[in-house]
């Protein structure tokens, strides 16, 4: 088990290094001079050259990459070209907002998908199970931003139960924080819950056909207690894979939802930086998102070892 964890940790480090090279290289091949963009089209060549020297853009590419990686490791990715604001504190503040949104969405998705998917599997030959399965198919086809717009029009505009957007700091107003987080979290969770419920249904159906579950039924256990005691752990192995992928998808989907609900998260920072051509900020935010996805995949591998003893024995 320890050897496998060490192997996955090495793969994680190698993946981060490769991703950093790709992100850094992609930003360097984009058209446009960051110094020229920062100073405007009417700036003199002398001013542009001075700014390029100030930000180290005249140095060799390898030196720039190593300095950038050193800044990331020390949580100091530099300052923006135009505003001269520090990038690290902005990412730290916006990341907290996005983590709240993603965590709430993931919890809601799991709380809905696991019982609904299990019910669809146990009742797959009955009318109610077929109806719920059809509704989950509809949920998969609905984009998160469309769900957010519909929720705003109903629960914010017509009923006035929740705010249509904005963000409240949890420590300042806990109730306002919960009310402001509800609609965006539901928007992200609805689609993910529908997808996850389909995978839970498939995994539980496979477990229901196993001999050990038939033996448990033959001993007198009803379907749901037998599944709870003997089947859910085996069914959770493929579901954990999908759960990790969905968690990574939530970080990407949060970019759009934060724009719909005017939430100052990491996605809003990314889109605003793209609009302002702040390439250093875009580069840092993209790298943070990539690292988050890679770390999620690493955690999924660790959960495999905890859930399935066969992997530990192997």
TrEMBL record:
Keywords: Cell membrane, Membrane, Transmembrane, Transmembrane helix, Transport. It is a multi-pass membrane protein. PANTHER family: DIPEPTIDE TRANSPORT SYSTEM PERMEASE PROTEIN DPPB-RELATED. This is ABC transporter permease. GO terms for molecular function: dipeptide transmembrane transporter activity. GO terms for cellular component: plasma membrane. It comes from Ornithinimicrobium pratense. Residues 95-300 form the ABC transmembrane type-1 domain. The keyword Transport applies. Belongs to the binding-protein-dependent transport system permease family. Pfam families: BPD_transp_1, BPD_transp_1_N. The chain crosses the membrane at residues 9-30, 99-122, 134-161, 181-200, 239-262, 282-307. It is found in: Cell membrane. The keyword Ubl conjugation does not apply. It comes from the Bacteria.
